[in-house]
Amino acid sequence: MLYKDLCRYYQRLEAETGKIAMMKILSDCFKKADPEEVDKIAYLTLGKLWPDWKGMPELGIGEKLTMRAISRATGVDVKKIEDIYKRKGDLGETAAFLVSQKRMMTLFQKELEVKDVYEAFKKIALASGPGAMDMKVRILTGLLVSASPIEAKYIIRTVLGKLRLGVGEATILAALADAFLGSDKYKDIVEEAYNKHPDIGYIAKLAVKGREALEHVKIEPGVPVRPMLAERLSDPAEILMKAGGKAYAEYKYDGERAQIHKKGDKIWIYSRRLENITYQYPDVVEWAKKYIDAKEAIVEGEIVAIDPDTGDFRPFQELMHRKRKYDIHKVMEEIPVKVFLFDVLYLNGREFLKKPYAERRKILESIIKPNENITLAQGRLIEKVEELEKLFLEAVSNGCEGLVVKNLSEIYVAGTRGWRWIKYKRDYKSEMADTVDLVVIGGFHGRGRRSGTYGALLVAAYNPDKDCFESVCKVGSGFTDADLAELPRILDKYKIPTKPKNVVTEMEPDVWFEPKVVMEVIGAELTLSPVHRAAFDLVRERLKKPAGIAIRFPRFVRWRPDKAPTDATTSKELFEMYLRQLKKLKE
Ligand code: AMP
Prior knowledge:
elongated, alpha+beta
C-alpha cells in the first residue's frame, strides 16, 4: 500500500467520530493492504512501531529536530518555520503547507510505500550513540523530501507522537475481525488471541490467516499475557455464594502485580499494564532463577515492599522508588521486597489457562522451592462465612488490603474482569486525622541495622472500665537512629518475664514490658484486627465482629513522658474514632 493511501484513510478517520464508522474505515484499509504490511499498518495507526512491552526505543523526536528536518527538506529556514507553526498551531500542518509550496516537485521520485515509511521510522527509533540525533534528522529529511503534503503531515505527527486518530486497540481488533473473519461480531476471537499475545502486529498477521490461526495462539515465556482481574463485593455471604460456596480465599497483598516469565536463565517481569519492569527488581530476577523449579514458566504474584528493619509490609507507594534506571542496587537495599505468588499460567511447554484454579494452585505449590523471598500467597479453603470473616480480619491485621476469593473450578481468562476472582476489601480509606497516645507493652528484637535494640514495639490503649491495657498495633516506623539506640535505655528497666495481668493481646512479643511508657502515634487509618484487643467488647457488641481496633501503618511521633499510662488514649475513644471514620466515608 502506498503511504499516501494510508494517509487518506487517516484523513477519513479524523473526520469521523462514530466508533462503528471508524472501525469500518479501518477494516476497509486492512482489506486493501498487502498481507505483509497489515502488522505495520496496525502499529502505525496506534502511533507505534512495536508493542511497548518489548522495551524497544520509541520514535519520539522533539520539535526542534523535527523543524530542522523540515527546513532541510524544504529549504525554508527554521525561524520562518517557527512563525508558521505559531500561526497554525500544528507542526504537521506546517510541514504539509511547506511541502506544498516547494517548487521542484517529485517528477522522478519513487512514491513512498507504507513499508518504506515504517522502515525509516524504525531506523529513527533505533539510532543511538554519538551522532544519533543527526542521523535521525537525516532520515526524517529523506522521508520529507519524498513526501507529498498529506504524507508530510502524518509523518511529522507520527514522529512527534501526536498522531491522535482516536483509534484504540479495541477498534483495531474489531476492524481486523471485520476485515478477515467477515464481521466485527467475531471480534471476541481476535480479542482473545490478543489477550494471550498482546502484540497488535502479530495478531493482525494471524487474522489474515483466519479464525483457526487466531484460536490456536499460544502463550509463551517472554510475551506477557493480559492479566485476569477481579470483581468486587463487600458482603462476605454473597462473596462465598458467588464463588461457588466453597472457595480458596487468599490474602490480598498491597503491592505491584507481577507476571514473572522464566525461560532457562532469562527472566522477564511484566506489570499489570504489561510494562517490562524487570530492571526494577534484580532481586526478584535472581530469586526466580533460583526458586522457581522449572525450565520454563509463567507465574503471577504480587511484589510487596518490606520494612528492612521490622520485616513488616510497607505501603505499595514505596515501590515507586524502584522506578529508576540508576542506583537500583542501592534502592534494592533500602526498599527490600517479597513476592507472593498466586497463579501459574504456563509450565515447561504446557499452558494452564483452561485448568481450574484448584489445579493451578497445586501446580504452583509444586514448583516453588522453599525460601523466604518468593512464597505462595497465604490462603485457606473456605466453606463458611464466619471463616471468611476471620481470614479477612487476619489478612488486614497482617498488613494486607483484604482478600481475593477464588472460585476453585474456574479457568484463567486473560484480560478480563470477572467473578472468577472476587476481592473483599476494607470499604473505607482515610487518613487518621489525630495522633493517639499509646502505652508500650512489648518489644520485638531488631534485625539488621536494628540488631542490639528493638525493631518494633507493641503498644496499647487504656481501658478504664477494666483497668487494663489493650493492644492496638506494632510500631516499627518513625524512629530516628538516635531514638532506636535509646530504646533499651528507656524500656529495659520495665522488662518482665511474662505477660502482665493487666495487658490484653493475642500477640506474642519477644519481650514484655510493664505498661509504663507512653508514646504518641499516628497512622494511615484505623482498622479491625483479630489479634489486637482495643475495644474488643464494643466491636463485638456494636459491630458484631470478633475484633479489636488497630492502626494501619503506624508511626512513632514522640515520647510523652508527661503522660501517665492511664492518661493514654482509651479503647472507647479509639472505637469512637473508628465509627467517625466509617461515617465520614459513607458521607
Ligand atoms: P484491584 O487492583 O483492586 O482490582 O485488585 C486486584 C489486584 O489485587 C490484582 O491485580 C493483584 O495485583 C492484587 N492481588 C494481591 N493479592 C492477590 C491474590 N492473592 N490474588 C490475586 N490478586 C491479588
